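Input record (one chain):
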Amino acid sequence: MPTLGSVPTDQPELELTFAWPRNSAPHHAKKLSGVTILPLEALLESGPPRTLPAGAMVMVTGQMPFRIRGRIAVAMEGLLQQMALDECTGLVVCVAQGVHQPFPQSIRDMSDQIDIPLLITHAPVAPWADLHASIQKRRLVAAERRAAQFNALVQQMPAQLADPKAMQRIADWLARALDVQVLVSEPERVLAASPPTAAEHLVQAIVRQSVESGISENPSSPHTQLISLAPSAGADTFLAVARRTPFEESDLRLLRHAAKLLGLVDQARREYRVAAEASHAVRTAAVELLLDGEVDKARRVMANLAPGLLEPDTARLFVVETEPARRAVAVRYCETATAGHALVIADPRETSRILIIQPVRPGESEESVAVELVRLVAAPGPVSSLGGSGVYSMSLLAEALHEAGTAQRFALYQPDYVALSAQDTDLVGLLSQHEAQRWARHLLGPLMQDDAQWEQLRETLPTALAYPYTVAARRLALHRNTVTRRVARAAELLGMDFTVIGDRIAVGLALELVTHRELSELPAVRLGEAPTLRTLLDAPQIHAWADTLLRPARDDRRDLLTTATAWLTFDAHLEPTARALGFSEVTVRSHIRALEVHTSRDLSSLSGMRDLQFALRIITGEPNITDGGRVLCAAA
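The corresponding structure, as predicted from the sequence alone:
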């Protein structure tokens, strides 16, 4: 849009000259919204128009005397008064060549009072009419552009004001719309910057301008603008923009509207943060109360935030592991996945853990939350591993946390990084599979020399070692003598006594590894020292498994672990165990049954006795376990 100072420079044929004031420089920057042409005859006959366009330059045309006086001077004074009311830019009169100052002193005095300059021109009317048409066309184009910009700005309004990406999207749009660098910041941090390098540039510009201008609260210039997003609230969040060219008034209006929108987003962000922090504090307090066994207090704390969520008497607990830097994102993922069916908090004790408590109502599936959490682990994202507990009473969630934490440590060694119950964790699955295969093949090597013999023994031994020979013969559809003969042959080849529980457990584990857990690609054979069963069991995940398995038994007031050690030492026979401990057989039997409850294992089965023996050996150092030696073995 042209200014009073630019017209004679851009279009010298219009011959526009300042007649008053002498120092016209302050008026050069006044913008022209158009040119209003007013014939002198019409002015004298009807007086000045009742309204004039704001920002217009009024031009009086017609036969103008060398010196304005009399009726013309009076009419001119009335016109200036109306121009002042309508905020016009300047008064121009068409004069003959050689006339330089047609205005009398009275009109010049009025010009000074109302701050409207007086100008003269020698150009004809037609070019001025063309200038007016050109200005209106440019104004229309600018208006359409601004309308499109405002419409686009409204489109940036997020569906949710608390959308964490809304501020950056608005900053990016503003940078494109006005070709500026944009920074939204508060004293502690940058909230949005476009382009990313804008932060460094604008901080330097603002500091430099503040020093140079001596204004520290609101530095601004034609090239840099700083706008508070919430001046009435006293917030310290600001919108700063800068560009190489000066800002026009329309640009500043758009900036102010963008600042209002950013202010709403910032206000929502602050309020959401306060609400989220309050909600987090309530949820954390409720979980702490639950872990302390204060179920009723926890229910009262959560009554307003999540009515009825903690009403059930039982619950499962899950532990999610994530990177500390991504835990806040992982919490939101878990909250979305559980859909209000669980209590989710960032563990205040561990910076990388998230705790999830799922109340379980009678008759409802306890797997719904677990299924969604497993999906989170499987999908790319911040959730890296998952451990879960069984169903516990609400008053025993501290126990559930221990189990879930142990399960999560087991999960790190699982292919899918998931272990939904430490109690159900498979010991064999926790072993290093290549090393376990080497140990098993080393132990069973004498049985595998003859293929036909190996086929018979691999079919017979697993059942024969787990059951009495009569039961094993019936299950295998063999004669009892055949089973007895094959077992005796295997014991002879291995140099073992299968009446000893340790020998039966070791061979049973080796057979399970070779026949049911065999790797798809077997390693090449090489000479070397085979791993021992002791080294296989000396792994962090196995120690965690053993601790979890025996912890309930250790908490029993009876010395169940001593009974279990003696019972296994005497090959699971009650009478010598009772005699060695000075107990009755009834007492020993009751201890074994209690161990079955605490460990969730069937101690009449070979796998149950195996888990108990290995766990005792790891935790207490007893009883002894059968191990292998050094021979030709499979390479890892």
